Amino acid sequence: MKQNLLDTKDYIVFAIYFVIVAGYGLYIYNKKKSASTGSKDYFLAEGSLTWWAIGASLIASNISAEQFIGMSGSGFKMGLAIASYEWMASLTLIIVAVFFIPVYLKNKIATMPQFLHQRYNGTVAMIMAVFWLLLYVVVNLTSILYLGALAVSSISGFDLDLCMYAIAAFAIIITLGGMKVIGYTDVIQVFFLILGGLATTYLALNLVSDHYGTKGIFEGYSLMTSKASEHFHMILKPENENYIDLPGLSVLVGGMWIVNLNYWGCNQYITQRALGADLKTARGGILFAAFLKLLMPIIVVLPGIAAYVLYKDGAFQSEMMQGGSVNPDRAYPVLLNLLPAGLKGLSFAALTAAVVASLAGKANSIATIFTLDIYKKVLKTDATEKNLVNTGKIAVVVAMVLGVLIAPHLGIDKKGGFQFIQEYTGFVSPGIFAMFILGFFWKRATSNAALFATIGGFGLSLFLKKLPNISDLSWLSSYGFSVKNVEGIYEIPFLDRMGFVFVFCIIGMVIISLFENKNSVNPKGLEIDAKMFKTSTSFAVGALIIIGMLVALYSVYW
Fold it and tell me: What percent of the chain has pLDDT over 90?
């Protein structure tokens, strides 16, 4: 494929982005350094992030190359339905702000393993701390690094390994400044990310209107809805070939809730942004993130649908090919290569911003869990604040080096980045979410029940994944719970599989807890007070506006 490499103007735009982020990061670091340098301040930016910095940081941590490339690829393949991941996340964020964050803040939680230690016991906390470190380094950090480098390399023409080293180095510099620097530089990263993303969407819609001899982005959009009307349905029918990835109503009432609530509510990488703030600021930031989430499909899904419409009508025939077949994940890079000089630099900066911000957030979470939950609890119980901050900095560098070394050997590009992350995290998230939700709201849940959910949930997920090879599941298809895969074998869609595993974990936890606590409440049960969940009027109004917009979107694109 012809590489339309970067022009001098693009390098200038990218250099401006780099100087702004690095300069602002340095400014924040020096300004805040004198104020306080304790471990809580370094890892959580205690009390110093504003609502807009928290909101922007949540989005910057969440959106990375796999969103741009993977969601656009899914837009090309299955259409707007993939936007459920984004739009349902808006509603999830409101739920997390109202019900989860007050519990964390009231109990002064800094890390997720600390919550498990306080609520269950040290064994559960240590198992999960080690597990999260492995998951973050081996699945998340590597996929963000590899797919990010792939994206940056496909636009710039630079060597893939060189891109990976450069991105890792830039992310390390930002991460070493601590959570404050990450939080505030994320505001700039999000600005570039949205601006660059909108530039690509604008180009994609114009390409469609030009291709059919009309003018303007609204004409382009209207042509897309008529030429690919099947790509504008949020709820897929069982006969749709993509039903296995997004099984109908499960995106509204089933497994999608587990994916989202676990990701946004029980994930160090995300909640860390809100844990250093007071409740009002944290809620304001999360509400801002929920609003930005509504806009994300415009940036990450529409370009993929535009590429599909053009491809169907004879454009990009050779560009979309990889290894003899159409690779939907090529949709976004193909469009980026068509951007004019200057704008291409902006999109290049947007992609880099997305990757670097996600890496910095991930690395900071890895350092936080390692330092506060393993180093301080086991390796050096009498560590000083300075020890902890220095250990955190070493952990950042070690994690990033490991990520760079492991990433090329995982075959991430073969599976499709977005699905790779969703499926592998999906093996464990039902059990983890069951353990958290009962830990929050049911005082009788015990530590053995929590261990059962973690290990039993993972075991059942693996069993259900392998089940189609052992047993014929076609009888489930009449209920909509099994569908033919590429090999013609009936299997349970992974979102439904997560739903089943979650129900199994909850039932198991309730039985074990009741058996162990026949007559009493578990003394480790959290103090929950209904007043904690009361919101301010401004938050309630904002939440209602977002819910109203969601209802409208699903009504129009059902």
Answer: 11
Q: Is 386 helix (H, G, I), strand (E, B) or coil?
A: helix
pLDDT at residue 182, rounded to an integer: 81
Q: Alpha-carbon distance 404 to 400, whole Å? A: 6
User: So what's the pLDDT on residue 390?
Assistant: 87
Task: Return the amino acid letter for 361.
Answer: G
Query: Of the candidates 197, 149, 193, 60, which has an alpha carbon nearest to the alpha carbon of residue 413?
Result: 149
DSSP per residue over 488-530, as a string? S-EE--HHHHHHHHHHHHHHHHHHHHHHH-SSS--TT-----G
How many Å apart are CA 387 and CA 392, to the nearest integer? Answer: 9
Residue pair 435/265 in contact (Cβ under 8 Å)? The answer is no
What's the Cα-to-Cα distance from 533 to each of 10, 75, 273, 280, 539, rounded to whole Å? 48, 37, 19, 11, 12
* DSSP letters spanning 201-269: HHHHHHHHHHHTT--SHHHHHHHHHHHTGGGS-SS--TTSTTTTTS-TTHHHHSHHHHHHHHHHHS-HH
What is the SS3 string spanning 424-449?
HHHCCHHHHHHHHHHHHHCCCCCHHH
Q: Which of 504, 397, 395 is nearest to 453 (CA)?
A: 504
- Per-residue model confidence as pLDDT tens digits over 421-458: 666 777 888 999 999 999 888 888 888 999 999 889 98
pTM recorded for the entire structure: 0.84
Burial class of residue 469 in the structure, from the number of CB atoms within 10 Å of its CB (0-12 exposed, 13-18 middle, 19+ buried): exposed
d(CA 496, CA 124) in angstroms, rounded, equals 27
pLDDT at 1: 38
pLDDT tens-place string over residues 381-431: 787 888 888 888 899 899 999 988 887 776 655 555 556 666 677 788 899
DSSP 141-192: IHHHHHHHHHHHHHHH---HHHHHHHHHHHHHHHHHT-HHHHHHHHHHHHHH
Asked whether the beta carbons of 365 and 269 are under 8 A apart, the reply is: yes
